[in-house]
Design a protein that fits this description.
Elements (H helix, E strand, L loop, with lengths): L6 H12 L23 H4 L9 H17 L6 H11 L2 H11 L11 H13 L6 H19 L15 H15 L1 H15 L18 H12 L2 H11 L27 H17 L4 H18 L7 H4 L2 H9 L6
């Protein structure tokens, strides 16, 4: 498979997403039950995001569909995407998603990964000549408010390589906030600097057995987004001072996936794809020799996991999103 995003690859990714965003089962709910009356089906609880095995994967499945539609509007599946988006990203269904947020014990629902992806979906919808963004806006504002309330009280960032990772969600949220909520953008910048600016000589003890994000590289990419270019260069050289010598070795070594039918172990394909995305996004801020090394490392990680974005549903319901991030990253084009 090419390491560049082509119309053919985009169409393949879109076809994969079309196959799961309305597939209700199997499904893993994120729900606290107050009583037996709360035992409802995914579609009853989430009128839009009931597919793709879990809520957040369905959200970024729709993001993938809108993204590929915008990039390649003449794809064979484009009509199917527009028809589905018109049907699903509609006011009555958005109202149902908002109603779920009004339930008790939903303060931590999808925090922060799903929050970030919902804002990314709304931001992508805003780039289309359709009603989707206007209809999704109340849901985006609801999650933006949650970020406003949550970030000031988060004393310590969450550095794990899974859905709870703080830096990854803020990368997504920051892009949306820069266009829609400057106060949130400023808050993200302030909190990122407070949490990460003094980090030095990161050991990159990764990946964990069920990681799909690189804790080290995701943090670096967030700091690239919030620091001026010159300040970022100085920070990065202290954060990962031994990269030119190939250390930490973990960041240069693709993860091995022993069982792609195991949903947690299949996360490791995501490590490879998200590292490729981060390396490519970071490359243009690095010295030439290190930038070349970053590109080579990204390619090696892509080769390890691009062939596996489809096959077993444990990976198929989400991996194409991270493959798309990597293939369309700035340094890839």
């Amino acid at each position: 498979m090419s390491h560049q995003l082509t119309p053919e690859i985009a169409g393949r990714f879109a076809s994969i997403a079309l196959g799961h965003v309305t597939r209700e089962y199997p499904h893993k709910l994120d729900q606290v039950l107050e009583g037996p009356e709360d035992l409802l089906s995914p579609r009853q609880l989430h009128p839009i995001f009931f597919g793709s095995f879990d809520w957040h994967s369905c959200v970024h499945g729709y993001w993938l569909l809108l993204r590929t539609l915008r990039r390649f509007p003449d794809m064979p599946v484009s009509v199917r995407i527009r028809t589905l988006a018109d049907e699903m990203l509609a006011p009555d269904k958005v109202a149902g998603e908002l109603a779920y947020l009004d339930r008790a014990y939903t303060g931590g629902f999808e925090r922060p990964y799903g929050w970030g992806w919902l804002l990314a979906l709304h931001g992508e919808a805003q780039r289309h000549d359709a009603a989707w963004a206007e209809d999704l806006a109340p849901l985006a504002r609801a999650f933006a408010r949650r970020f406003h309330n949550y970030l000031p009280k988060l004393t310590y960032p969450i550095r794990t390589g899974t859905h709870f990772n703080t830096a990854f969600a803020l990368i997504l949220a920051l892009e949306w906030a820069a266009a829609n909520d400057l106060a949130l953008a400023a808050l993200i910048g302030e909190r990122a600097r407070a949490w990460y600016r003094e980090d030095r000589d990161c050991p990159a003890w990764e990946p964990g057995g069920d990681d799909f994000l690189s804790s080290a590289l995701t943090e670096a990419l967030l700091m690239k987004r919030v620091l001026p270019r010159g300040e970022f260069a100085g920070w990065f050289n202290l954060f990962l001072p031994r990269l030119a010598a190939g250390a930490p070795k973990s960041l240069f070594t693709p993860a091995f996936v022993s069982d792609r039918s195991d949903g947690k172990i299949a996360h490791l394909d995501g490590v490879n794809l998200s590292r490729a995305w981060c390396w490519r996004e970071l490359a243009d801020a690095l010295e030439p020799d290190l930038a070349a090394l970053a590109q080579e490392t990204a390619d090696r990680h892509l080769e390890a996991s691009l062939p596996h974005v489809a096959g077993d549903y444990m990976g198929e319901h989400w991996l194409a999103t991270f493959a798309l991030l990597a293939l369309e990253s700035r340094s890839a084009e």
